[in-house]
Fold Signal recognition particle receptor FtsY.
Amino acid sequence: MEPIVIIGIVAVIAVVAVALIVWGVMKHRSDAAASASSESLPQSDGSPSAGASAVKPAEPADAAVSSPASAVVASSDESTAAVESAVEPTSTAEPAASAPRKETPESATSRIQRLKAKLARSANPFGRALFDILAKDKLTEADWEDVEDTLLLADVGAEASERLVDELRRDARVTGESDPEQVRAALRERLLDLVGRDTDRRLNADRDGANRPSVIIMVGVNGTGKTTTAGKLARLFVADGRSVMLGAADTFRAAAADQLETWGAKVDVPVVRSDKDGADPASVAFEASAKAKEAGSDVLIIDTAGRLQNKANLMDELGKIRRVTEKNLPVDEVLLVLDATTGQNGMTQAKVFAEAIGITGVVLSKLDGSAKGGIVISVQQALGVPVKLVGLGEGPDDLAPFDPEGFVDGILA
Ligand SMILES: Nc1nc2c(ncn2[C@@H]2O[C@H](COP(=O)(O)OP(=O)(O)OP(=O)(O)O)[C@@H](O)[C@H]2O)c(=O)[nH]1
Ligand SMILES: [Mg+2]
């Protein structure tokens, strides 16, 4: 026989042998898998349709109810978790059953951390639209228009939006081309400039050499969050170790003073109010300022009734509240509370309030429910006063100093 034929036969035998070995291994594996899945079925509740994933959680749950100890012994990670969660409610039930205590307001550091994250989330819808545009390789004419529209929709204001986009386009030309990453970095810088990165946003009560008592008057249209903000602000000062007095100069309805009293009671802050409905709000402001002076409080916060900016007599009333208070104490701060969800309508309100009583700062409330954070820019430009605080929720500690960097990063997130 020719050697080549012998080699050929050996090669064929070798290939057949290898094929047989591979087939044998595969068959063994699939048999093992089939027997494993059929073995798991009898452990189920007997339902033929129950698959492995439906069966597993039932075991630890049953075990936890009947015998926690045995569940721990038989434990997988899931069963241990089930036991822990079965035990937890008993231990957490105890504090709930005990008597109510005076609240301790959240510390400034932890509050600011928490609210920064919340602020970033609240501004996001605006950011996402910009992100989509800026994620492109090269910006076209239509993209630039979209950037401007997005700024407009976020209430940045027509003039500011146009100027911002013009400046960015000029920049993009200077730097060569419209690289979205560069545009994003430039946009961040411009937005920070517009928002005012170095603006002094401290409350006047927080400045060195502030008057004592330092007087703050809350004003704004109906339902913007004046009383809530007065309450939250009182908590902020209390958390900082300062003594506070509240004045309920919203005498329009008794419920308003009750509302303020509820805030005061939680942090042990006295509230000066009138006994009768419809009393002169200026007389309550007078009495509150006299009492705060006498008590030597650090801060007096006066809440006023909501009023529409087109009601001339009600706007005059604000001027009177201020003048009467000033017979006892200088007024350091008038905070206009603007509801961020009202968008550009807030601008008209702001201008009229500024004329009637003078405004030293803006509180932008309900920013948690608004994609219109851009009003921060337009309101500051129109009034020339800074946004000092933002309201980011209905929780008692959901009030934070306005932080420009956090705000802009939230927009561009
Ligand atoms: N989500 C959210 N709700 C807020 C915020 N601030 C206030 N609110 C809610 O807005 C509603 C009105 O708040 P108030 O503080 O009573 O408003 P007001 O300006 O005192 O109202 P009037 O005295 O009637 O003019 C309440 O339900 C508050 O809980 C905020 O920052 N975020
Ligand atoms: Mg109120």
In short: Confidence is low (pLDDT under 50) at residues 30-100.
